[in-house]
Design goal:
This protein is of the alpha+beta class and 314 residues long. The strands form four sheets. It has a three-stranded antiparallel sheet, with helices on one face. It has a three-stranded antiparallel sheet with strand order 4-5-8, with no helix packed on it. Strand 2 and strand 3 form a beta hairpin. Helix 3 runs antiparallel to helix 4, helix 8 crosses helix 12 and helix 9 packs antiparallel against helix 11. The longest helix has 20 residues. It is elongated and about 90 Å long.
Length: 314
């Protein structure tokens, strides 16, 4: 049930005024009405009909959310779309499912957050506050769109109120001696990848998206033009994560010599080919790269808190 919208008309001197409240905000306007009846007609134009929200809000949450996600598919990056879809189908729809979208209120959102905070993740531990807040943001987007679409009077998700307190942990970065130890224990095939990551700070998707034509040997620079998002066995080429992601990075002498030697060893014929590849396909960052990284990490006796993100800026 939506909140009532109230209003009144009154005369001051020869002019008729309307006064009304919508979503807790009071408004007052002067009209061109010549009498009380005309003033009331003007007021009615500013008061949305109650049945509009009631009727349009009858749609099931799951149906509305699914349609919204499909509409936004053409505007979202594949990685963002997949993340939203996963959150929607794994956490949000199973909870709200067949509820009418107009029957979801602030208290329901609080109950949802509480349920999420007690839910077990893949590691058997409760979902972290960061994960819960990310799920809440997706719900917020859905309900905000429903408000814009006049399905509900107001978005019941108040992020600052419903989110869980979260203090992000300090990032753990490699020290120079630790990177050298990691390199010593890394499979030789993947050393160029590790060195490139170390000396450029590129994100993983940007790294595996590098092609030989992106290397300017004369200027000793690398131009970042693309990123690769991997879904299953598919390599989806996208633009870099941010607008500033299109950039040129000058190579250190060590990186220049590493890539030059790698180029000569591989006897590269086509500059359109990927630099970090196997059988013509870019490295699988969630499989080959991460498994080789963990193997080298164990071999070097380094702490488990170090990840590929500890090298770059991902």
């Amino acid at each position: 049930m939506s909140h009532p919208k109230t209003g009144s008309v009154f005369q001051r001197g020869k002019r008729w005024y309307i006064r009304y409240t919508i979503r807790g905000q009071r408004h007052q306007k002067v009209t061109e009405a010549r009498n009380k009846t005309e003033a009331q007609e003007t007021l009615n134009k500013y008061l949305p009909k109650e049945y509009d929200y009631t009727e349009r809000g009858k749609i099931k949450f799951s149906e509305y959310a699914e349609k919204l996600l499909e509409r936004q598919k053409i505007t979202l990056k594949p990685s963002v779309y997949d993340r939203y879809s996963l959150i929607l189908h794994k956490h949000i729809i199973p909870y709200f499912n067949s509820s009418r979208i107009s029957d979801i209120y602030s208290g329901d959102v609080q109950d949802f957050v509480l349920t999420l905070s007690e839910k077990k993740g893949r590691n058997g531990k409760p979902l972290s506050p960061k994960t819960v807040n990310n799920i809440l943001l997706v719900l917020n987007k859905i309900m905000s769109d429903a408000e814009d679409d006049c399905r509900i009077e107001s978005d019941p998700v108040i992020y600052r109120k419903h989110r869980l307190p979260y203090n992000p942990p300090e990032k753990d970065y490699f020290k120079i001696e630790e990177m050298n130890a990691l390199l010593e224990n890394m499979n030789p095939e993947y050393k160029p990848f590790l060195i490139t990551a170390w000396h450029t700070g590129l994100r993983l998707g940007e790294l595996i998206g590098l092609k030989w034509k992106d290397v300017g040997w004369s200027k000793k620079a690398i131009t970042v033009r693309r990123s690769i998002y991997q879904a299953g066995n598919k390599n989806i080429v996208t633009s870099p994560k941010t607008k500033s992601g299109f950039r040129t990075i000058f190579m250190t002498p060590y990186l220049y010599e590493t890539l030059k030697s790698y180029w000569e060893t591989k006897k590269v014929q086509a500059i359109d080919g990927y630099i970090l590849e196997r059988d013509g396909k870019p490295y699988n960052k969630d499989g080959i790269i991460r498994s080789q990284f963990r193997k080298a990490l164990r071999g070097a006796g380094l702490r488990k808190t170090l990840t590929p993100h500890s090298i770059g800026t991902d």
